[in-house]
Amino acid sequence: MRPGKNAQTIRKENLLLILENVLGADRFVSRAQVAQRTGLTRATVSRLVDELIGLDILTELDPVRTTIGRPSAPLVAKSGTFCVVGIEVALQYISLVVTDLSGAELYKVSQPINARLSDPKVILGRCVQMLEEWKAPTEVRIASIIMAIPGLVSDAKHRIITAPNLGWIDIEITDFFTSHKYAATPLTVVNEADASAYSVLYKNPGQIGDTSDFLYLSAGVGVGAALIYEGRLFSGQHGWAGEIGHMCVDTGGPKCSCGSNGCLEQYAGLDAMFTRAKLPLDESVDPLIEQMVRGNTQARKTVDLCAKSLGTTIANVLNLLDLNTVVMGGHFSQLFDYMEVILMSELKYRLLSSRWSSITVKPGQHGAFTAAQGACLLGFERFLNHPELWVKP
Predict the structure, then answer these.
(1) CB of 364 within 8 A of CB of 327?
(2) Which candidate in 117, 246, 303, 330 could, as Cys together with 167 as Cys, close a disulfide (CB 3.0–4.6 Å)?
(3) How far apart are CA 76 and CA 49, in angstroms?
């Protein structure tokens, strides 16, 4: 038998309900509108809104007059108070974004690196240095630091189990953020594709975007994916869901680093594509695009094969999961215009539901900052859903 709710539990639930209605609204809402939407009394809403204002979570703007009724004061997220730091370690760069509760970017920087088979002490030390270079205003409080990496992470979300292309195995990231400035700051690590998906899921902290059901594809040397269903990340039993790069495209295909053969990564991963196009390996897809535009036949065939392989794989996933939207990240977003015709043709040919429903496949929009921005939004999802992080007892 479940124990009954006490006053403190009800209070926290009502605070979350008010936040959901304020932050998730498409336009500004007032106290009266929040009361109407939530079913709470005006007195309860007013008291809890005052508490959220006192906690620097919300602020109230000057009253504005609408066409009907008396002026009302819009409620909005308080800017410049709580923030989340999002960091992505990719093979060719480190990106860092600091976002506050209003969705404003307080800091944003990216630096080129070569992290392939790298020393984690050097790379993670550079992440710390980049963060320390940010001159944070004294009133800003870091709610959490979220790091995105191309690899598998532990259930506890602070240990990297393996990041093969970085060459990292069993890395505890808390060992590197030892400064007293971050001693009390929650620090977690997430898969890069999972973090990137949050840049699509949310417009701003607490505000869901245009779709809450989609497949996100990430691309680099490896190929990863994240599944968002009903506004939640599906991570699987061990948190490792999304290894789409190791789905089989051709049982007779080339050997893969995972030990199998014919994996999608061998047709759509960056190293495999450069090798097939007979071009020197590069950390960016730009040279491949340049050669294709110049008329290099092998480069064109490589991109076409990537498109066909992606179409086949995505169709298999969508046939299983019954989704209508796919977002292409990493170098897939850069190649999208060159792959769209073949990819969509293959997808529609193999997708059972294509005869009855439309499928949307679109490129991502945030470039090298995608995972870092998504990490910030993921951090705020956790922050806003756990009042114990900000509500005074």
Answers:
(1) yes
(2) 117
(3) 11
Per-residue confidence (pLDDT) for residue 337, from 0 to 100:
96
For residue 249, the one-letter residue type is V
Tokens of 299: 């480069």
Report phi then psi at 176, rounded to 5. Answer: -105, -20
CA 318 to each of CA 29, 340, 354: distance values in angstroms, whole numbers, following the listed order: 38, 17, 10
DSSP state of 261: B
Q: Which of 301, 320, 322, 164 is nearest to 245 (CA)?
A: 164
For residue 188, what are the β-bridge partners? 146
CA distances from residue 114 to 152, 167, 197, 284, 341 in whole angstroms, order as listed: 20, 12, 24, 12, 34
Average pLDDT score over residue span 323-342: 95
Q: Is the whole-model pTM more than 0.85?
A: yes
DSSP state of 64: B
Q: Please name the residue that has the structure tokens 């630091």.
A: 145
Residue 67 CA to residue 28 CA, distance in Å, equals: 15
Residue 294 confidence (pLDDT) above 90 = yes
Cβ(285)–Cβ(291) below 8 Å: no
Cα separation, 371 vs 377, in Å, equals: 10
Segment 174-189 shows an average pLDDT of 83
